[in-house]
Structures are given as C-alpha cells and as structure tokens.
C-alpha cells in the first residue's frame, strides 16, 4: 500500500505541476488575499503547495486510512440530544487541525495559508482516498471562505478564529421536509428582534448538524414566496450552555456512518444575519457552488481509492495461469477507470482555477474579468458535480466486480467504497438538478447568441475532417456532437413555440430565423417537456465534451504519455456521445407517449 497518498501517486503531483496554472496564480492570489511578495518566485510557491500536500499525504496514509474501517463500523450515535462521533474520527480531525488543514482555507489576513482552490480540492481528494467519513467532515467544517466573503468585519474577526480552531464546528442547513431541491418552498421562519432573529421551524438531512453552529437559510419576509425574502442566519447550537436548537434525530444510512445526517429543530432559536437580508438564496448559492465542487473532489478521491484497490488485487489474483489484470476485459475495465479519473481530476482542477481567478478579479474590482470567470465557474461546477459523482459509482462498482465474490465481503474495503459513493449524486443537489442547471445555462446562452451556436454546427464537423492534429480533430468531433444535442433541443422548442416547418429550413435559414426570434425562445409559456426529458443525457454529452476539452487545453508540448491518454479518452467518449444523441432523438418519443398515457 502507498506510504504517501500524494507523492506516491505521480498523477496527482503532475496534475498540479504540469496541467494547471498554479505557478501563474500564486502571485496574483497573494497580492489579492495575502502578502504581495510572500513568495520570492512561482517555483517557491509551488514548493510550498507541494510540501503542504506531501505532509497531508503522509498523515492520510499512515494514520487516517488505517482507521477508515473502524470509523465506518463505529459510526455516529445520538444520546440524550448529543451526537457522539467515533473516537478515531475525532482523533483524525484533531491531527488535521494540528497540521493546519483548517487554516489552509483562510486568507493570510485571517492567519491562514491562503491555499489556492486547486490545492484545497486536491487535499479533499487525498482525504477521501484515505477515509470518506473524515474527508466529508473536513469539508463540512471548512466554512471560513464563506464568512470571509459575506461576513462583516466584526463577524470575520469574531467567527473565523473559532472556525479555524474548531471551537465552532459548522454545518449548512437548507433542506426541509417539504423543501429539498425546491428551496422556494422553505417554511422555517425568522422574525427580527433588534440585532437578532428569532427562528422557528425544522431542517432535515443536515450533514454535521450536530456541530456548534449552522448557517441556516430561512424566510425572514413573512409574505414572501419562492426564493424572495430568504436570508442566511448564523445560529449557534448552544447559548450560555443551553440548547439554542435541538438535534432530534440522526438518519440511519447505508453509507458514511460516522457523518451524522441530522434533523434539527428551531424553537425560538436566536441567530444573526450573514450577508444582506432578503438575499439569502444569492448568499447560499456561493456556498452551494463551493460545496458542489468539494463533493466532486471527494468523489474523485473515493474513485481513486477504488482503482488502487482493484489494481492491487488484479495484480495478485491469478487465474488461468496469469494475473487477472492481464485478461483483456479486466485490463479494459482498469484502463477505463484510469481514464475517467484523469478526466474527473482535470475537470475539478479547471473549476478550481476558475474560482480563484474569479475572486481575484472581484478583489481587484475588474468587473469584466469577474463576470468572465464567474460564468466559467458557474458552467463547470454542475459538470464537475455530475460527472465526478456519477463516475465514482461506476468506478467503485467495477472495482468490486474485479474482486468477484470477495468484493461483497467486508474483508476488503471495496464494498465500503461503493457504499460511500452512493450518496454523492444526491448530496448538494441531485444529478438531475445539476442536469437542469447545465440545460438552463445552455438555453440561456442560446437565447442570447442563437446564431453563433448554430453557426458552428457545420463548421466543427467540417474542420474536424481537415484538422491535421488528432487532438484538435477529436475535440472538434466532440464539439460537433454537443452542437447536435443543442440543435435537437433547440428545434423542439422552435417547433412548439413558432409551429414552424423546421424540416424545410436549411442551417443558414435556421440562423436567420433565430436571429429574428431568439429573444422570444424562452418564456413562461415555452413547453420544455422535451428539453427536461433529455436534460440528463444532454448533461452527459456536455460533461464528456468539457472533460476532453480540459485535457486537450492543458496538454503540454512534447508530453507523449499525456497526449496518448487524451487521445484514448477521446476514443472512449466519442462513441457514447453519439449514442446519447441517438437516444435523445429516437427514444424520447416513447417516454413522452408513456407520460401522456399516465397523465390522461
């Protein structure tokens, strides 16, 4: 087994050193949030980031991973309103605090390490590789950036030291019995009394809700509806030693047994405002986006652990006179897992870089750059969440399959790793919600720039045929598949909206048509049944395209190994993109007919 979960995995080291912009990012990041000349050179910054992850990788391998099984079987327990975590998990968190993990997420202005988001994402991947329960707990407690963004100066000075020291262990309280993905149905209400708010209501499925405080999204405007009139409140669990809100239940889950998923009840509980009153959804959206990126990093770590276990077992297990990794089907499974994890890591890294460039631009007051990077971050976040969390299940399931009958036995960790992945397509917005976000972003762009979208339809396909570089050719082919998916959705809207004979329109005529009518494409009367029906298939096509693009765009000259891997990934995704397009066109009608039969 690996002795260091960072340095013993060259693909992790190379991701940060060769396939991202950390060296270019370090100086502007320090200038914006740290000390202008803190690092003498980009190489010094890279050595520092490498050193941080090397120490974390050592602790993760030597201390945290050996405890993962015990942490899982012990689990969290609720006794007399108090939740008790496994001692091994508490010890892990203490050691990570001593290592400075909770300082890493803070800027230097608040005694932190000012680590780039890409380093923080890699840290979460490493921790999830070692122990998913521990990693999720760390992600849950790492709320300093949220307060740095939205807190008043007084709140920053008072609260951030408590979060770094873990005097306050934090959580995020959104979901209610009648408001899961639809946050507009929130009923927990708070009325203002002086500088405080008095809160009544309940929240469910709150990860780590047994901590010392929670960031609660509540309704502060009595007559408001939907997403208006919501605010984020900082609510301590105890005030002067007495309960301010109660933990009434922890869910019995098939996974992440040591991460308490809590029901919490507010009864005249006291809280204070974080961010502008009435703009809670906007405030919480920042935290939700960051949480989705964190979930993608955690899922990548579990997938990597599954691949490591599968490779080790496949090298040792001999059948028919040779290790099973030499059997073609097993070799194919292992290599596909490796390709997918490389793509997952590249997507997470790209979103992480966009996040840092976005906040640097915001700090500098450069609104044009801020909007550019915010759009890119918004585009990549649901793709990361969808792709990484869905692929983690497939990868861990295939790892279990490679173990055969032993895979479902608790003698080996693969059954636990598979169980731990199951929740990730649900956490922080289901895969279906992420698909709708991808669809919504695309349709919004189409409505604003419809001729430009369709103008590339023929161009991408034609250019792919003459491109001399196979990397570029494959990327253009993938773009063509994405364009065809966009066209399929767009044509369904136009047919319904304008009752036009679309089949008689040539591409050039479609462009002219859209130029005249694109502003009217989307309205409350637009029938989006077909786009919603195919949203998840469309999300998979979009994920594959952006994953390939991230790999292609970050390909250094002369890196033959990475080039071959990128070409192989293209050969993996292009056929399945075509298949998804076929399903979008052909299979959807049968589902629409099924819906009509059961709604008539």
């Amino acid at each position: 087994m690996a002795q260091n979960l960072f340095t013993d995995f060259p693909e992790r080291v190379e991701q940060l050193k060769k396939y991202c912009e950390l060296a270019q990012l370090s100086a502007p990041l320090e200038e914006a949030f740290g000390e202008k000349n803190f690092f003498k050179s980009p190489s010094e910054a890279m050595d520092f980031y490498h050193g941080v992850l090397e120490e974390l990788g050592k602790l993760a391998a030597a201390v945290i991973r050996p405890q993962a099984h015990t942490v899982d079987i012990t689990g969290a327990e609720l006794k007399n309103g108090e939740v008790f975590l496994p001692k091994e998990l508490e010890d892990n968190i203490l050691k990570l605090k001593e290592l400075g993990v909770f300082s890493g997420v803070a800027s230097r202005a608040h005694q932190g390490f000012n680590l780039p988001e890409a380093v923080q994402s890699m840290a979460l991947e490493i921790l999830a590789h070692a122990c998913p329960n521990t990693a999720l707990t760390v992600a849950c407690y790492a709320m300093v950036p949220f307060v740095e963004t939205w807190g008043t100066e007084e709140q920053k000075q008072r609260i951030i030291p408590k979060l770094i020291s873990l005097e306050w262990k934090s959580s995020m309280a959104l979901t209610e019995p009648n408001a899961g993905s639809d946050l507009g149905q929130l009923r927990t209400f708070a009325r203002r009394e002086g500088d405080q708010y008095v809160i009544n209501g309940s929240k469910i499925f709150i990860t780590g809700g047994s901590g010392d405080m929670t960031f609660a999204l509540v309704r502060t405007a009595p007559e408001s509806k939907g997403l208006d009139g919501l605010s984020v409140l900082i609510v301590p669990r105890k005030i002067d030693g007495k309960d301010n809100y109660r933990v009434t239940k922890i869910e019995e889950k098939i996974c992440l047994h040591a991460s308490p998923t809590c029901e919490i009840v507010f009864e005249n509980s006291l809280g204070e405002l974080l961010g502008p009153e009435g703009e809670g959804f906007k405030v919480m959206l920042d935290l939700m986006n960051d949480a989705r990126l964190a979930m993608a990093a955690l899922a990548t770590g579990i997938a990597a652990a599954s691949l490591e276990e599968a490779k080790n077992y496949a090298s040792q297990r001999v059948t028919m006179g040779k290790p099973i990794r030499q059997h073609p089907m097993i070799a194919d499974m292992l290599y596909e897992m490796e390709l997918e994890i490389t793509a997952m890591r590249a997507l997470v890294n790209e979103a992480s870089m966009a996040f840092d460039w976005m906040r640097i631009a915001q700090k500098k007051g450069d609104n044009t750059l801020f909007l550019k990077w915010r759009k890119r971050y918004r585009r990549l976040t649901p793709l990361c969440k969808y792709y990484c969390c869905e692929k983690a299940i497939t990868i861990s399931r295939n790892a279990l399959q490679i173990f055969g009958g032993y895979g479902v036995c608790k003698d080996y960790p693969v059954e636990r790793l598979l169980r731990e992945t199951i929740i990730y397509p649900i956490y922080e917005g289901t895969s279906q919600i992420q698909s709708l976000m991808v669809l919504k972003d695309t349709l919004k762009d189409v409505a604003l720039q419809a001729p430009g979208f369709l103008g590339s339809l023929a161009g991408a396909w034609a250019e792919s045929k003459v491109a001399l570089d196979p990397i570029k050719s494959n990327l253009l082919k993938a773009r063509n598949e994405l364009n065809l998916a966009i066209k399929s959705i767009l044509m369904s809207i136009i047919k319904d909206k304008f009752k036009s004979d679309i089949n008689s329109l040539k591409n050039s005529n479609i462009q002219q048509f859209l130029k005249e009518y694109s502003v009217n494409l989307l309205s409350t009367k637009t029938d989006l049944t077909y786009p919603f029906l195919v949203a998840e298939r469309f999300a998979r096509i979009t994920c594959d395209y952006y994953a390939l693009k991230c790999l292609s765009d970050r390909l250094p000259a002369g890196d033959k190994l990475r080039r071959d891997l990128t070409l192989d990934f293209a050969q993996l995704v292009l056929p399945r993109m075509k298949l998804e397009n076929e399903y979008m066109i052909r299979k959807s009608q049968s589902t629409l007919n099924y819906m009509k039969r059961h709604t008539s």
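The CA atoms of residues 34 and 108 lie 5 Å apart. The chain has 20 helices and 13 strands.
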